Structure formats: C-alpha cells, structure tokens
Amino acid sequence: xxxxxxxxxxxxxxxxxxxxxxxxxxxxxxxxxxxxxxxxxxxxxxxxxxxxxxxxxxxxxxxxxxxxxxxxxxxxxxxxxxxxxxxxxxxxxxxxxxxxxxxxxxxxxxxxxxxxxxxxxxxxxxxxxxxxxxxxxxxxxxxxxxxxxxxxxxxxxxxxxxxxxxxxxxxxxxxxxxxxxxxxxxxxxxxxxxxxxxxxxxxxxxxxxxxxxxxxxxxxxxxxxxxxxxxxxxxxxxxxxxxxxxxxxxxxxxxxxxxxxxxxxxxxxxxxxxxxxxxxxxxxxxxxxxxxxxxxxxxxxxxxxxxxxxxxxxxxxxxxxxxxxxxxxxxxxxxxxxxxxx
Length: 342
Hints:
Blueprint: H1 8-18, E1 27-28, H2 29-39, H3 45-54, E2 75-79, E3 82-85, H4 104-110, H5 116-123, H6 126-136, H7 142-152, H8 159-172, H9 188-197, H10 199-205, H11 215-227, H12 237-247, H13 257-263, H14 272-291, H15 294-304, H16 316-341
Antiparallel strand pairs: 1-3, 2-3
C-alpha cells in the first residue's frame, strides 16, 4: 500500500469534509471506496472497509482495529453497506473495548422477527376482528375526539395548537396519571421544544412511501424517535410511538404494552439503543407487511371511506392497531372459555 502524508483514519475525516456530509446524509461503502480510489489510489478497498468499521462507533469489530476513544468516533453503521455521522447526543455509547460490545441479549433485539403467526391470525380474521373492535366500543369520548383533532390539525399553520391536540390525545389515552403513581408526561413546553427541533425531519417523514422505504427514511425516523421528549419515565417506545403516530400516521403506528407488545410477545428494555431497533422491526415486519397485503388494503380503503361508521379507522396503520386490540379481546375470551371448560 502506498504511504501518504496522513494515515487512513485521518483521511477518512478528510473524506467526510470533502463530501460535505451532515447529520442527515447517508454514506455508502461504495461511495467511500470510490472516493479513495480517486483521491488516494494507493489505498486498497479492503483497507477502506476496515477503517469504516474502525471509525463506526457501533461496530463490534472496531476493537480489533484498535479504535482510539473519541478520536475514532466518526461514523454510525446503519447496515453492512451504509453509514451516517455519529450523533453524540442520541446514539448509544461508542464501543471502545470488549465490555462495550453487544451482549447476546442485545443482539436478539437486532434479530429479525417476522411475526408470521400473528400476521396470519389477523389476515385470516380481518372482518371478524374489525366487527369485534367496534362492538366492544371501549374507546370513546376524549380519546377519540382529540385523536381525530390531532390528525386533522397535522398540516395547520398553528403548530402550537396542533401539538396541544397531540399532547391532549396522549393524556386521554392514559399516558399521564394524576397522583403519586402511574405514568407521567413532561411539561408541554419541553415536549413542544423537542418536536420543533425536528420540524424539517417530520415534514419529510410525512411523505414516506411504505412500499418504497429507503435507508435514509429509516435514519430519519430513528432521529425523530430519539429526539422526541414526552415521557418522564425511561421507556420511550410507547409514548414516542403515539406521538409519531399523530405526526406521521402513514408510517408509524401507536405501540402499546397492553395490546401491541403483548400480541407480538415482545418485551421492552429501556433505552433508545434497545427500543428503536424493536420499534423499527415491529413497523417493518408486522405493520408494513399487513398494510401492503391486498386483502387488507381493499377492506381498509372501504372502512376508511365510511368515517361515520368507523371513526377510529383513520389510517391503515391505525386500523391494524384496532385489529390488534380486538385480537387481544378475542384471546382473553378464549382463555376464559378454556378455564371454564377445564
């Protein structure tokens, strides 16, 4: 390999500057290889690939390349071929030594679950579950009123009023309990400030197409998820997903412990580095899978066309959420019947 005035790890930083990468940009492996091939042809492809790992804060292999703490914390690895700039405020602590590498438990969060059993159960019982949801009529009053108000106000110029509707929706959905116990939301001004910072990302996310979601789209959603501040507790997935479901209902569903997580047999470990991969997997492998099913989409369009009869059918993802809630009722009823027969 030809020697240059700077070592490869410092040339990587020059590459980032030369390409004018910012927090929203995605760097592909091929882009980095092409840059070095043009600027420093004496540096081979394998060396470039090794240094991408060394400078990626979440790449376990970086410890084998003697990554220097803080000096080499440049990138965040999205997948085997894509990277972005490391975000000190929101990304997990960089891997600097072996004790920082993901444990078996952590790696399980990255394991793809396809939820095939749960998907089949819903697809095979679409109309039955839809009827059951509305027959139960357990959600009404403020929970429905503010939900619809928040969605209707999504594009209004008065951003504060819109966020007030979202804030009120979460209260009516049980995210804030009076008294010493129960879940607690942050003051409205703290919530609003966190959303205001993300205004551009939210606007772009509202145009995501679930049939053609890109790596950049997932990065954008991750940034929004990690940036929203709504709950006082350390658990983010429930509160943040319910906020995002009103900011961008086209791509994010409300996720609930009592219904969604129980139905999918998922548990939550607190912290953005654990909760975001779980939320992404639920959206990608469960909600998108059902939303793009032809049988579902045909019925969903019909249901959404009659808002007087189906006021909770406000988006494809919300309909799936309604079906999951109904499936929870159905499963509880089945267990009771089994106990009575035992």
